[in-house]
Amino acid sequence: MTSRRKFILQSALAASSFPFILKATAAHHPSTNFPLVISTWDAGVKANAKAWEFLNNNKPALDAVEQGVMVIESEVNCCVGLGGNPDRDGFVTLDASIMNHLGDCGSVAALEQIEHPISVARAVMEKSPHVMLVGQGAQQFALANGFILKPKELSAEAEKSYQYWLKKSEYRPIINVENNGYKNNPPNKLDNGQFNHDTIAMLALDNLQNLSGSCTTSGMGFKYRGRVGDSPIIGAGLFVDNEIGAAAATGHGEEIIRIVGSHLVVEFMRQGKSPEAACKAAIERAIKLRGDKLKDKQIAFIAVNKHGEAAGYALQKGFSYALQSPKHNNELIEAKFFWQ
Ligand code: SD4
């Protein structure tokens, strides 16, 4: 913990860009560290604020993790949801997953024209006998369950990025690597204005000490049509074991799938590792498996254990997570990382 650098939001920034930060006023037990919510990247601050309203009112973690990420899914010109970057054929295809403390889970992949894939994932969990629905079938299920079909048009930002990308049409995904030649750019954007990460994952521990998690993404920008990342794959992008803890992932999905990352993090916590040590051990596993092939890629995890300890850890510099609990005031924290 000693070298972990906390970015408690500077007051000016907090006042201008993050007016939504709430004070930790939860009805929590003073000696405990829950309720708690942790989520990925800077958008996590805004998502946490929504989730906290639920946790603070003694609502289940499942509602908190759904409602929290929905805020970001709805942002126009944001990196998650219908405002995100399209695939290489120009279609925005969304992946999402959700899991509760009972081992119930649901997910959707390659879902088009639906604003809240996370809620469709929850509907799959609660209203179907299945765990995962994809593509047209997922859309058909969504419409049958009252979701509305949205227009196909790209957001202005995504259209700009897509037009830029089309000039070369190079399949060279660079996800979340702020320091890979792009270090002078503001977070979230590459030098062409393209979004730099496109996922939000969230984990929550509620006042009954139950865990849930969610993960939602427009996926890797300009991916092959039909490509599915880690986010909707239970065990890869998200895993919850209410006895031990929960974990979620962001970054280069293919690399996360290869190590079944989130499940691996939870299993490391089961062996007694802290959330941060467990995330680090999963990153080390990926390096052991792939070595230099990870040089230009980012993968990162967040994790929380049953006692309300939470942290993140990344392969490369530049990953941050937002944390709200009785001890953390929705701070954006820069994660430790492996490759110094
Ligand atoms: C994916 N893991 O589709 C996602 C991408 C991501 O921030 O996390 N971007 O591979």
Key terms:
single chain; 340 residues; alpha+beta; Glutamine Phosphoribosylpyrophosphate, subunit 1, domain 1; 5-stranded mixed beta sheet; 9 helices; 14 strands; globular; disordered N terminus; binds N-hydroxy-L-asparagine
Strand order of the largest sheet: 1-13-12-2-6-7-3-4-5
Distance between the termini: 17 Å
User: What is the domain tally?
Assistant: 1
Helix content: 25-40%
Integer average pLDDT = 86
Instruction: Give a quick account of the main beta sheet: strands, pairing sense, barrel closure.
Output: 9 strands, mixed
Ligands, ions, cofactors? N-hydroxy-L-asparagine
CATH architecture name: 4-Layer Sandwich
**Global structural class:** alpha+beta
* Rg: 18 Å
Any chance you could write out the topology, listing elements then pairs?
Layout: E1 6-7, H1 11-16, E2 36-40, H2 43-56, H3 61-73, E3 94-99, E4 105-111, H4 117-127, E5 132-134, H5 135-144, H6 156-168, E6 199-205, E7 211-217, E8 238-241, E9 245-251, H7 253-258, H8 261-270, H9 275-290, E10 299-305, E11 310-314, E12 320-325, E13 328-334, E14 336-337
Helix pairs in contact: 2-3, 3-4, 8-9
Word description of this protein:
Helix content is 29%, strand content 22%. It is of the alpha+beta class and 340 residues long. It has one domain: Glutamine Phosphoribosylpyrophosphate, subunit 1, domain 1, CATH 3.60.20. The N terminus is likely disordered. The structure holds N-hydroxy-L-asparagine.
